[in-house]
Specification:
eight-stranded parallel β-barrel; TIM Barrel; 10 strands; binds ligand PBG
Length: 327
């Protein structure tokens, strides 16, 4: 006999009861803020497709990093927007390239308060906008890209990055970067693999955020949305290659993959609430169709429930404040 013996509503009757019964919680320390820094500008530039987000100057980046550290979030993920691009993404390996300069400064400023991280991918640095170098016929050359990633990884580690986010989706990228780091003595640099990174529409606003030049798409290297089992396979391969953390991306549309990966591996699993997810909520909230704060907090809880240990989200600092207020 189920009812009236069992009344599930008993555990939902008041806010204090619900708070005590919550199976999952999100803490500020689990949140990572993605940030963009642009070379050669004197004022931060708003990203129109991501209201509230900007391309930072080095100065405004430093101030925002300090605010983020004070908010108690877990980390910062830096993306560079260089002034000049070329076919092989030279700015990515230049110690004076914008991303390497920025991570050095930010690590010195807040590196003991949170984990300062860098995106390891060529798309922001190439004039064609692809995540790798190209063959003469214009295809993305997997194996030639690996040595470029290895150089980029060493440059970032040398500059002061504590964690490298490998987001290029080349086969063998984790092993290539790990080997190069070990050779140079950077044995403590953490590798976070964007293992199950799906191609598709949700990265749209990010293109403006980094002024991407891409024409065409990334479907020969990023994963195909119908494939969930393959996401688990990618995660297992990356762990074998030396990844410390694996990630699933985009976020909310791929919580099934996140849960599958969580159940299949014993390393931390992260999720990325990407630009398109951010912009959808911002747009609907601006129209008054969604309660912004409640929607953001619901979405973060969903990531935790699906098994994410940490979440990259453009709302990291604001959400940390809300979580504190609610506690
Ligand atoms: C690659 C990279 C991208 C994002 C993070 N790292 C772009 C892409 O894969 O097309 C997207 C993040 C977002 O949409 O918020 N450097």
């Amino acid at each position: 006999m189920s009812f009236p013996t069992h009344r599930p509503r008993r555990l939902r009757q008041s806010a204090p009861v619900r708070r005590l019964m919550a199976e999952t919680r999100v803490a500020p320390a689990q949140l990572v803020l993605p940030m963009f820094v642009r070379e050669g500008i004197s004022e931060p530039r708003p990203i129109s497709s991501m209201p509230g987000q900007v391309q930072h100057t080095l100065d405004s980046l430093r101030r925002a990093a300090v605010d983020a550290a004070e908010a108690g979030i877990g980390g910062l993920m830096l993306f560079g927007v260089p002034a000049v691009r070329d076919a092989t993404g030279s700015g990515a390996v230049d110690p004076n390239g914008i991303l390497n300069l920025a991570v050095g400064e930010i690590a010195r400023e807040v590196g003991d308060a949170l984990v300062v991280q860098t995106d390891l991918c060529l798309d922001e640095f190439t004039d064609h906008g692809h995540c790798g170098v190209l063959t003469p016929s214009g295809a993305v050359d997997n194996d030639a890209t690996l040595s470029r990633y290895a150089e980029m990884g060493v440059a970032q580690a040398r500059a002061g990055s504590q964690l490298l986010g490998l987001s290029g989706m080349m086969d063998g990228q984790v092993a290539a970067v790990r080997e190069a780091l070990d050779e140079e003595g950077f044995t403590d640099t953490i590798l976070m693999a964007y293992s199950a990174k799906y191609a598709g529409a949700f990265y749209g606003p990010f293109r403006e955020a980094v002024d991407s030049r891409l024409t065409g798409d990334r479907r020969t290297y990023q994963m195909d949305p119908p494939n969930a089992r393959e996401g688990v396979r990618e995660a297992l391969l990356d762990i074998e290659e030396g990844a410390d953390i694996v990630m699933v991306k985009p976020g909310l549309p791929y919580l099934d993959v996140l849960a599958d990966v969580r159940g299949s591996v014993d390393v931390p699993v992260w999720a990325y609430q990407v630009s398109g997810e951010y912009s959808m909520v911002e747009a609907a909230a601006e129209k008054g169709w969604l309660d912004r704060r409640a929607t953001v907090l619901d979405s973060l809880t969903s990531f935790a429930r699906a098994g994410a240990d940490a979440i990259l989200t453009y709302w990291a600092v604001e959400a940390a404040g809300w979580i504190r207020e609610d506690a």
